[in-house]
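Running this now, will post back.
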Amino acid sequence: MLRVAVTGIGAICALGRTVEGFGRALREGRSGIGPIRSADCS
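Update: finished.
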């Protein structure tokens, strides 16, 4: 059996770039879905 070691945790998503930011956004009930503003999608 292989052993696994978890050495950290991270999050990069629409709700935040850190675990703390992601958790805060979830608690505030924010949505990570919205219009794309960083590129011309027409």
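The mean pLDDT is 88. More later if anyone needs it.
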